């Protein structure tokens, strides 16, 4: 019978032997942790589990989401479950989709020295430095699109020598884009007005009062787009 | 990466693919559906259920794992608390930092209430963040709220509470407009028209999406706005028990700081539960798509205080959970994959069910294919699954469509060496959604005065089966309704002395009924995983 492959990993410097098939998150639990910080969705969507690690003998510092990264032999790791960057507080209605809006809350974007550390650490493989460049230029559409898959784990900010909080720049750009750049959906506005005017009330009341058999027959014979 | 054996099996999928393009597989008849559900859906496996022994729902059937938490003592039974000393004293206390909680907090504050939002993990570490597929709303000319109503009722097998469904479909376009106003980046055509698609059980294309990060996009937008508006938010603080006043009305909650392990008292004129679902209870040992904090705490606290539960004997198993690779076992393969045309195939590369059947029917059909007909594909860890033919999407929508439409899925499988544009995904049903919850009315209020519930924590809206895209919708519709109602009425509330008498009574009732609690306490707050099964599985 095949044996489970075990590897040694070092959680904050302390050695544990864990099955090599586990993710970093599962390996921490295998080692006996009950996670409080550093664990949210367990599926790569929430950014709670940013982790830095180094493999013994390698100088390079690597990062990953603990829930989406497999352990490796001789991995030295620590989680960074929180990063103290400051979020701007704004009223979206008052802002325009311009570089000036971004710079008002995040002036550090102009201090980017082009080191690309943010892009290198992004566990989502986003081109972070590129979206900061778009932000500098006021290209809100591209900044929003390029940063769209951001899980806001904060690892980029933790490595930035210019103290930029890239992930906060990204969400401001996306909200500016969604609100002020993308054209509004006319059909949504129209339906909203119809609902306010009570256009569907009678029909809905009627449906509410139908018995199950009637509903069933309507449902089973409904046309499908 | 797939093993060589699995790659060999994939060849059969590739062989049959050209013949399958554009061929319409028949839907099941209502009779066939009933048959496959009764025989294979986990809701019908009697050993997985137990009856509630105390309280307002005594005698009702709920999943075993939930029943053991209901038949348990309060985790603060032996904690000394001075209920006359308030650590927090607010108008509206919102418990749970997912989409429902954020929507409730924003809405209550808009009405002038002093709002406190507490949440167990980080704000946004929630099921809402994980929703990929989309949100339903009947806002296109070919569609209407009444058509949506019919889909919801049919999907829920006609058990839904009609007034709640009416609220849901009526407010849907209003919620979409609200999100648009907040700058949510929906997928749109050049002229602003929403890109909408089908989901399981929809009769119109009304699924709105933001790539395949729909929930994340909604959650981070609402979180950003909540913080902008200065709502007080406390993270890593769980509610552990509801507080009632002497008249039996909700009046606050006992909070627990997960990090310092201190208990605190919060008084509030209105309490809104938004604690989400219970996937982490792993009913019938199923893996789950849910976030780490989905332990059903709100159900337990509400029930102890006398709030009614509804439809908790029906659990949604998502037909498309990852069955391979083992690192992402149980995680969601978004319904958008079948929404865009991918079909279910067995080991011989044959389709065995229409790809857009409702979730319960699709899950049962997959379990039948694997367990009943033994035509599943077995993985090296002994897991069984069927193929979901994602490369078919490229043939339907053109080359590059998978990458463009499903970036989150491409990334997730890509991390483990599987290219879903070219290789099919291996899937098996996974525990996904709690169809029921604490019963509410159209304002989100429960039978316990001043206690509201919104989101997955609530029950009645979806009857016995929720359709995809109606949950992201309901958390916002009822989060807003609860928030507005609480925000409009808190001024009329005169709170009396706070008590935990209801907990004492509950304990007494457990004893009177001779329920052996065996030292169990609840709510659970966090699951505990040790992953020892990995050793047994592979050794
Ligand atoms: C992977 C996945 C994909 C999905 N896809 C879709 C989709 O495409 N479309 C759709 O409509 N629906 C989808 N759903 C369902 C939908 O996302 C959820 O039902 C919905 O988001 C629940 O929102 P909520 O606010 O009620 O709960 P959640 O978003 O889960 O929030 C609950 C919050 O309460 C907190 N909490 C729990 N207990 C306590 C406590 N004791 N004290 C304090 N806080 C507590 C939790 O930590 C969490 O932050 C999906 C669900 C999952 C898991
Ligand atoms: S736990 Fe959410 S990204 Fe890892």
Number of strands of chain A: 5
Gyration radius of chain A, in Å: 25 Å
Kindly state the percentage of residues in helix of chain B: 25-40%
Main β-sheet description of chain B: 8 strands, mixed
What is the structural class of chain B?
alpha/beta
Give a structural overview.
The complex is a heterodimer of chains A (225) and B (539). Chain A folds into 3 domains: 6-79, Ubiquitin-like (UB roll), CATH 3.10.20; 92-181, no CATH class; 186-220, no CATH class. Chain A is 38% helix and 12% strand. Chain A has helices at residues 24-30, 99-105, 117-121, 128-137, 140-146, 155-159, 166-181, 186-196, 201-208, 212-220; strands at residues 6-11, 14-19, 50-55, 62-65, 75-79. Chain A has a 5-stranded mixed sheet, with helices on one face. In chain A, a hairpin with a 6-residue loop joins strand 3 and strand 4 (62-65). Chain A is flat, with a radius of gyration of 25 Å. The N and C termini of chain A lie far apart (54 Å). In chain B, strands 4, 5, 9, 10, 11, 12, 20 and 22 form an 8-stranded mixed sheet that branches. In chain B, strands 14, 15, 16, 17 and 18 form a 5-stranded antiparallel sheet that branches. A 3-stranded antiparallel sheet of chain B has the order 6-8-7. In chain B, helix 4 (99-110) packs parallel to helix 15 (470-489). The longest helix of chain B has 20 residues, at 162-181. Chain B is globular, with a radius of gyration of 23 Å. The interface between A and B is large, with 75 and 91 residues. The complex binds flavin-adenine dinucleotide (FAD) and FE2/S2 (inorganic) cluster. Flavin-adenine dinucleotide binds at residues 95-101, 118-121, 125-128, 130-135, 214-215, 238-239, 274-276, 289-290, 293-294, 297, 332, 433, 455-457, 468-472, 475, 523 of chain B.
């Amino acid at each position: 019978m095949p044996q489970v492959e075990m590897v040694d990993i070092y959680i904050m410097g302390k050695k544990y032997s864990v099955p090599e098939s586990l993710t970093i998150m599962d390996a921490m639990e295998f080692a006996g942790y009950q996670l409080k910080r550093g664990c949210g969705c367990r599926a790569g969507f929430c950014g709670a589990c940013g982790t830095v690690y180094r493999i013994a003998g390698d100088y390079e510092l690597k990062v990953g989401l603990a829930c989406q990264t497999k352990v490796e032999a001789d991995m030295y790791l620590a989680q960074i479950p929180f990063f103290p960057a400051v979020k701007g507080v704004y009223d979206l209605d008052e802002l325009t989709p311009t570089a000036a809006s971004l710079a008002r809350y995040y002036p550090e974007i102009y201090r980017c020295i082009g080191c690309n550390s943010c892009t290198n650490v992004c566990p989502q493989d986003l081109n972070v430095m590129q979206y900061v460049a778009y932000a500098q230029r006021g290209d809100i559409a591209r900044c929003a699109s390029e940063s769209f898959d951001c899980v806001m784990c904060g690892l980029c900010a933790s490595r930035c020598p210019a103290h930029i909080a890239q992930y906060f720049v990204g969400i401001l750009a996306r909200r500016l884009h969604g609100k002020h750049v993308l054209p509004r959906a006319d059909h949504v506005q129209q339906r909203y007005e119809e609902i306010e005017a009570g256009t569907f009330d009678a029909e809905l009341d009627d449906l509410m009062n139908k018995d199950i058999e009637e509903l069933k027959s309507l449902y089973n014979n409904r046309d499908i787009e | 990466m797939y093993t060589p054996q699995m790659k060999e099996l994939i060849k059969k999928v590739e062989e049959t693919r050209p013949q399958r393009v554009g061929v319409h597989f028949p839907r099941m008849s209502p009779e066939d559906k009933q048959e496959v559900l009764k025989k294979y859906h986990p809701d019908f496996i009697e050993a997985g259920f137990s009856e509630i022994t105390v309280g307002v729902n005594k005698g009702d059937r709920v999943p075993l794992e939930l029943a053991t938490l209901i038949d348990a003592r309060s985790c603060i039974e032996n904690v000394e608390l001075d209920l006359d000393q308030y650590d927090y004293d607010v108008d509206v206390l919102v418990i749970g930092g997912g989409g429902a909680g954020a929507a409730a907090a924003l809405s209550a504050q808009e009405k002038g209430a002093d709002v406190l939002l507490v949440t167990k993990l980080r704000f946004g570490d929630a099921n809402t963040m994980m929703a990929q597929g989309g949100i339903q709303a009947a806002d296109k000319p070919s569609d209407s709220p009444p058509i949506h109503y019919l889909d919801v009722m049919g999907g829920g097998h006609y058990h839904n509470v009609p007034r709640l469904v009416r609220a849901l479909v009526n407010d849907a376009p209003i919620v979409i407009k609200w999100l648009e106003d907040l700058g949510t980046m929906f997928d749109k055509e050049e002229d602003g028209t929403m890109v909408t698609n089908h989901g399981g059980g929809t009769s119109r294309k009304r699924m709105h999406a933001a790539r395949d990060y729909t929930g994340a996009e909604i959650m981070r937008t609402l979180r950003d706005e909540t913080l902008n508006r200065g709502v007080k938010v406390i993270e890593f603080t769980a509610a552990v028990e509801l507080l009632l006043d002497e008249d039996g009305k909700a009046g606050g909650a006992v909070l627990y700081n997960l990090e310092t392990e201190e208990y605190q008292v919060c008084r509030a004129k209105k309490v809104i539960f938004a604690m989400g679902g219970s996937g982490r209870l792993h009913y019938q040992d199923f893996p789950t798509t849910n976030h780490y904090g989905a332990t059903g705490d709100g159900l337990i606290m509400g029930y102890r205080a006398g709030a009614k539960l509804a439809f908790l004997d029906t659990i949604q198993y998502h037909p498309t959970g990852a069955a391979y690779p083992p690192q992402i076992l149980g995680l969601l393969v978004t319904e958008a994959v079948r929404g865009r045309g991918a079909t279910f195939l067995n080991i011989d590369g044959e389709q065995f069910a229409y790809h857009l059947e409702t979730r319960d029917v699709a899950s049962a059909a997959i379990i039948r294919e694997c367990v009943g007909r033994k035509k599943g594909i077995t993985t090296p860890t002994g897991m069984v699954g069927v193929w979901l033919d994602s490369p078919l999407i490229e043939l339907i929508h053109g080359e590059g469509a998978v990458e463009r439409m499903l970036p989150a899925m491409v990334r997730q499988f890509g991390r483990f060496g599987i290219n879903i544009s070219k290789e099919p995904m291996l899937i098996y049903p996974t525990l996904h959604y709690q169809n029921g919850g604490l019963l509410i009315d159209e304002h989100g209020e429960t039978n316990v005065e001043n206690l509201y519930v919104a989101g997955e924590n609530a029950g009645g809206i979806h009857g016995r089966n929720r359709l995809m895209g109606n949950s992201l919708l309901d958390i916002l519709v009822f989060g807003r309704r609860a928030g507005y109602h609480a925000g409009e009425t808190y001024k009329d509330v005169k709170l009396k002395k706070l008590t935990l008498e209801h907990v004492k009574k509950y304990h007494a009732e457990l004893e009177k009924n001779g329920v052996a609690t065996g030292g169990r306490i609840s709510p659970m707050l966090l699951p505990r995983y040790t992953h020892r099964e990995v050793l047994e599985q592979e050794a």
